[in-house]
Amino acid sequence: MILELPFPPSVNHYWGTRVVGSGKRKYIQRYIAGAGQKFKSAVHEIFLIDNVTEKLCGPLACTVDLYPPCNRRRDCDNYCKGLLDALGSAGLYDDDSQIIDLRIRMHPKRAPGSVTVTLEQISAEHCAHNQLDLMAL
Q1: Which helix or strand (DSSP H or E) is residue 87 part of?
Q2: Is CATH 3.30.1330.70 the right assignment for the domain spanning 2-136?
Q3: CB 90 within 8 A of CB 44
Q4: 52: closest CA among 91, 89, 88?
Q5: d(Cα 115, Cα 26) in Å, to the nearest integer?
Q6: What is the pLDDT of residues 18-62, one digit of tens each?
Q7: Which residue ranges make up each domain of the chain?
Q8: Main-chain phi, psi angles of 97, to 5 degrees
């Protein structure tokens, strides 16, 4: 399965934190920030428009090709967490822990920015034995 999506926000912009409580009962709460919510909504909308209803089961291999909107320096690993969570939230798979083979490639800029996600199911014989054990948990 190949998906063309808008360029995702980095993990630094996808998640936000806030301090909740007071006194000795203070703790930090994580939430999906505005950029993350906007991206997640865009993914859901694309799935509806393109009628993406297939749910992938079992272990998956994923290749993420990032085409940033500008030439700013970026860490390619900062874009996958929010992207994979949004795909799971849209119902493409049950949980992103199914992805046991992940490849990320940063390409030259391509305005307005996009990401191509290629997902394929992996047969059990292509998995390390302990990966299948971890997926069963």
Answers
A1: helix 80-89
A2: yes
A3: yes
A4: 91
A5: 38
A6: 888 888 888 888 888 899 999 999 999 999 998 888 899 999 999
A7: 2-136
A8: -70, -15
